[in-house]
Amino acid sequence: MRKATICYKSEPAGIISQLNNGSFHFHYLETWLEDNNKPAISLTMPKSKKEFRSPHLFPVFFHLLPEGANKQAVCKFKKIDPSDHFGILLHTARFDTIGAITIEQLD
Questions:
Q1: How far is CA 48 from CA 9, 16, 44, in A?
Q2: Which residues contact 44 (CB under 8 A, 6 or more apart)?
Q3: Residue 98 scores a pLDDT above 80
Q4: Which of 8-12, 17-21, 59-63, 94-98 is the least confident region?
Q5: Distance CA 77, CA 69 (A)
Q6: Which residues pair with 6 in a beta bridge?
Q7: What is the rounded distance in angstroms from the CA atom of residue 85 to the CA atom of residue 66?
Q8: What is the Cα–Cα distance from 34 to 62, expressed in whole angstroms?
Q9: Which residue ranges make up each domain of the chain?
């Protein structure tokens, strides 16, 4: 299993996990849920105590992935399978993303 903290404007908002079967789970952190000033990270993932589940990487995170030549360069340099979307995300979405979301891998 692989896990990462989802940050919104550099503040931890939730945890995403990829299970060994390849499916994904996301849940908001309790501190994020308790603060009414904190937004949902996506319209498709409203603030809730429920755990979101998907057989594929959630669209809000999938759309942070590099494409084309940039994706090829990342995969070659980091030796990541091009179909390992979560692996690519963990290496590319730590600092510089379009929008407010960044991702920090958990050990």
A1: 19, 14, 11
A2: 58, 59, 60
A3: no
A4: 94-98
A5: 12
A6: 14, 103
A7: 10
A8: 27
A9: 2-64+94-106
Looking at the chain, the number of H-run helices and the number of E-run strands are 4, 5
CA distance 39 to 7: 12
Distance in angstroms (rounded) separating the CA atoms of residues 28 and 47? 7
Entry field: residues in the chain: 107
Q: Identify whether the C-beta of residue 6 lies closer than 8 Å to the C-beta of residue 16.
A: yes
What pLDDT is stored for residue 12 in this prediction?
97
Long-range contacts of 12-21 (CB under 8 A, 24+ apart): 13/38, 13/41, 14/41, 15/106, 16/58, 16/61, 16/103, 18/86
Rounded-to-integer distance, Cα 13 and Cα 60, Å: 14
Among residues 55, 54, 77, which one has the least CA distance to residue 66? Answer: 77
The pLDDT of residue 96: 73
- For tokens 């996990």, the residue is 17
Averaged confidence pLDDT in the chain: 93
The residue with tokens 């390992």 is 84
Nearest to 53 by CA among 17, 86, 84, 97: 17
